[in-house]
Structures are given as structure tokens and as C-alpha cells.
């Protein structure tokens, strides 16, 4: 779907603005390279669909086929296929993340749900996505996250609801680089991004022997 725009004297102007567009340069400038490297970027406008359905139902089977992978059935687990990733939120609740068009994904999931009990709601505007990556990414998060993020306890493919600083987030570890994606509510994204930029600043300085 094309980006919604309005016409002005200077031509078409995009209507959507990401919650962190104003911090793009600060996030780029905060990046650190090398063995203690860490980088912070925003992935705006990712499709997010909240899904509720009985995991033992025929409707859940249809949704599995629509997504191309079974919905995760355990706390902290994710499954992925093509552009879609399903994140476990509760025994009968998931967040579907996708690079595909939000309208198309929502329509396909609603068709798969059919008339069975459950719900499919496009919540893409509810959150934004921050990506924190690099050798020091885990140490940055550990400054304000109560989870045990050591690889023995939390690794690629795991996603849970937690806090970073005072901000509630959905935290997903994508790979073992490590790369993490954080999903804060849009209204808290500015605070979280500034908190992370501050937490990253230590790694711009020489390591103390």
C-alpha cells in the first residue's frame, strides 16, 4: 500500500511520521564501533497485529497455515516464516510482526479466523521498534533491564515483556550478534531512546584497565 500523502505547494507530503524521526541523527551519532560497539536505530511502521484465538481450535490451525509457521505455544517463544514473526504474549494471545502491508496481513488473519471466537486487531500505530545491536548491546540493556540476559538464559528467538529503565517493552533477541528489538508504546519511545543513548555513551570512551 502506498504511503498516505497530502498535496502541498511543494508537492506530496507524507502523513506518517515515526515517533523517533526527530532523534534519527542523535541515534546515528551515538553508534560505537569496534569490540565494544553498539548501535541504535528505529525501524518505523512495522506491521503489528494482535491476535487472540484458542490454540487448540481449528481456527488456530488455519492461522498457522496463513502465517506459514505454527503459533508459538510457550512463554517467551517466537516462530517465523517469510515476512512474519509470531510472538507469544499469553496462552491465547500473540503479536504478529510483519514486513508485509498491515491491511493485507490483518485481512488474511481475519479470513483465517473466520467466525470462530477470537480477535484480530491492527495495532501497528501502538508501538514503534528500536533495534539495539553490537557486542556491547547486552551490557547496555543490563543497565536497566531486570531480566537475566546471559546466553544461558535468554537467546535468539526469545521474546518477553519486561522493562528497560522505567519503560515497559516487549524485548526480542533476534540473533547472537547480539541484536535486540524493543517495542515500546509510541508515547514512551522518546524517553526510551534517550535512555539508551545515555547508556551507550560509556562505550565511546576507552576501556578502563
Describe the model.
Helix 2 runs antiparallel to helix 3. Helix content is 22%, strand content 32%. By secondary structure, the chain is α+β, with helices and mostly antiparallel strands. The strands form three sheets. The protein has a five-stranded antiparallel beta sheet with strand order 3-9-12-11-10. Strands 5-6-7-4-8 form a five-stranded antiparallel beta sheet, covered by helices on one side. A two-stranded antiparallel sheet has the order 1-2. The chain folds into two domains: 100 residues, Probable tRNA modification gtpase trme, domain 1 (Gyrase A, domain 2); 76 residues, Heterotetrameric sarcosine oxidase (Alpha-Beta Plaits, 2-Layer Sandwich). The mean pLDDT is 94.
CATH architecture of the largest domain: 2-Layer Sandwich
Strand content: 25-35%
* Structural domain count: 2
Approximately how much helix is present in the residues? 10-25%
Tell me the strand order in the biggest sheet.
Answer: 3-9-12-11-10
Order of helices and strands: EEHEEHEEEHEEHEEEH
Low-confidence stretches: none
Number of strands: 12
Tell the overall outline: globular
How confident is the prediction overall: mean pLDDT?
94
Biggest sheet, open or closed, and with what strands and sense?
A: 5 strands, antiparallel
How many helices? The count is: 5
Organism: Streptomyces ferrugineus
Protein name: Sarcosine oxidase subunit gamma
Amino acid at each position: 500500500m502506498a504511503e498516505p500523502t497530502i498535496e502541498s505547494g511543494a508537492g506530496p507530503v507524507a502523513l506518517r511520521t515515526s515517533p523517533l524521526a526527530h532523534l534519527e541523527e542523535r541515534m546515528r551519532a551515538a553508534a560505537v564501533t569496534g569490540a565494544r560497539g553498539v548501535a541504535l536505530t528505529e525501524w518505523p511502521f512495522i506491521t503489528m497485529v494482535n491476535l487472540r484465538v484458542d490454540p487448540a481450535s481449528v481456527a488456530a490451525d488455519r492461522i498457522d497455515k496463513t502465517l506459514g509457521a505454527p503459533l508459538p505455544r510457550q512463554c517467551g517463544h517466537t516462530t517465523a516464516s517469510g515476512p512474519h514473526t509470531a510472538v507469544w504474549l499469553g496462552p491465547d494471545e500473540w503479536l504478529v510482526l510483519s514486513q508485509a502491508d498491515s491491511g493485507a496481513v490483518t485481512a488474511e488473519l481475519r479470513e483465517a479466523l473466520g467466525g470462530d471466537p477470537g480477535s484480530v486487531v491492527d495495532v501497528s500505530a501502538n508501538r514503534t521498534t528500536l533495534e539495539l545491536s553490537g557486542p556491547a548491546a547486552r551490557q547496555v540493556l543490563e543497565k536497566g533491564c531486570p531480566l537475566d540476559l546471559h546466553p544461558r538464559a535468554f537467546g535468539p528467538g526469545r521474546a518477553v515483556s519486561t522493562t528497560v529503565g522505567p519503560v515497559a517493552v516487549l524485548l526480542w533477541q533476534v540473533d547472537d550478534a547480539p541484536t535486540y528489538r524493543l517495542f515500546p508504546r509510541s508515547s514512551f519511545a522518546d524517553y526510551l531512546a534517550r535512555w539508551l543513548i545515555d547508556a551507550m555513551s560509556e562505550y565511546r570512551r576507552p576501556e578502563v584497565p
